[in-house]
Amino acid sequence: MERRKFLRNSTVVGAGLIATPMLASTSNAEKELETGKKGGPSKDILPMVICTWDFKNASAKAWDVLKDGGTALDAVEQGVKVEEADVDNQTVGVGGRPDRDGNVTLDACIMDKDGNCGAVLAMQNIAHPISVARKVMEETPHVMLAGKGAEQFAYEMGFEKTDLLTEKSKQDWIEWKKTSQYKPVINIENHDTIGMLAIDINGDISGACTTSGMGYKMAGRVGDSPIIGAGLFVDNEVGGATATGVGEEVVKTVGSFLIVELMRQGKSPQEACEEGVKRIIAKNKDKQDFQIGFIAVNKKGETGGYCIHPGFSYRTYSENGHVNNPSDSYLDT
Ligand code: ASP
């Protein structure tokens, strides 16, 4: 009974979409709704997608997949690939900032409605780590492949070798080497992962997370982004969460898993994200000069986001529109 009602509602939502001008706006950025509205999609509005930061081309791509009845898994993969391919984005995929030795090493993971997951860590020379992570999930008995092994597997799966270091990122690195100071900048410059969660018309949730990691990191450093439970977690009974910011701190609290479990215990996505940030703050009482941003969605399509310092935002796209949501923060500055 409940299931039938849900499917009927989904169909109505889908039909409504086709009739509204909003659908046309999916390929027309000028027509998107005003930015700055908080809260994201309201209850029971599916399908929907949410992603970290103002990655509006990525959320629009994911929405294109979802509105055509595609799966949440396809939506998150296709969505984050937009940022992996953007050479001007120096924090994800091609054009990402290198490690301190000048090598671009990429991290990504993906998780589906059945709890299956795949990840690649510190992988070089492959433009779309999220798609390799999906192959790890679907084609191997493993969850994670790292470094040369991940790259070798990618070639076996038909991925092409790609030079990930753009001239701009190379010049920035050469400039950085003059001082060699490793200091993550809050919100921008040397980090900004895309984490994305989607719910499809069947109500199923998937998530993806991909990054070039902290700029000028030590060779071999891996952050939270490809670690299931830290940078991303999905439980199709409850919801999903994903993170951006200084990965070491997210790993220490297994942040995304924590947020999903808090939602299981009854917290809203917003309350769960706030608690996730507070756990990190509690472990860093004397050192708060770093950024963490969490986003979450529950099974109803309710969303939340929270961060340490102002400046973080997250995109939502649903029947309610395509919105950049400025996140509330623990600190004022
Ligand atoms: N979480 C990423 C990492 O630690 C970086 C980021 O999101 O800014 O590698």
Automatic annotation (TrEMBL):
<dbReference type="Pfam" id="PF01112">
    <property type="entry name" value="Asparaginase_2"/>
</dbReference>
<feature type="active site" description="Nucleophile">
    <location>
        <position position="193"/>
    </location>
</feature>
<feature type="signal peptide">
    <location>
        <begin position="1"/>
        <end position="24"/>
    </location>
</feature>
<dbReference type="GO" id="GO:0016811">
    <property type="term" value="F:hydrolase activity, acting on carbon-nitrogen (but not peptide) bonds, in linear amides"/>
</dbReference>
<feature type="site" description="Cleavage; by autolysis">
    <location>
        <begin position="192"/>
        <end position="193"/>
    </location>
</feature>
<dbReference type="InterPro" id="IPR000246">
    <property type="entry name" value="Peptidase_T2"/>
</dbReference>
<dbReference type="GO" id="GO:0005737">
    <property type="term" value="C:cytoplasm"/>
</dbReference>
<dbReference type="InterPro" id="IPR029055">
    <property type="entry name" value="Ntn_hydrolases_N"/>
</dbReference>
<feature type="binding site">
    <location>
        <begin position="221"/>
        <end position="224"/>
    </location>
    <ligand>
        <name>substrate</name>
    </ligand>
</feature>
<keyword id="KW-0732">Signal</keyword>
<feature type="binding site">
    <location>
        <begin position="244"/>
        <end position="247"/>
    </location>
    <ligand>
        <name>substrate</name>
    </ligand>
</feature>
<protein>
    <submittedName>
        <fullName>Twin-arginine translocation signal domain-containing protein</fullName>
    </submittedName>
</protein>
<dbReference type="InterPro" id="IPR019546">
    <property type="entry name" value="TAT_signal_bac_arc"/>
</dbReference>
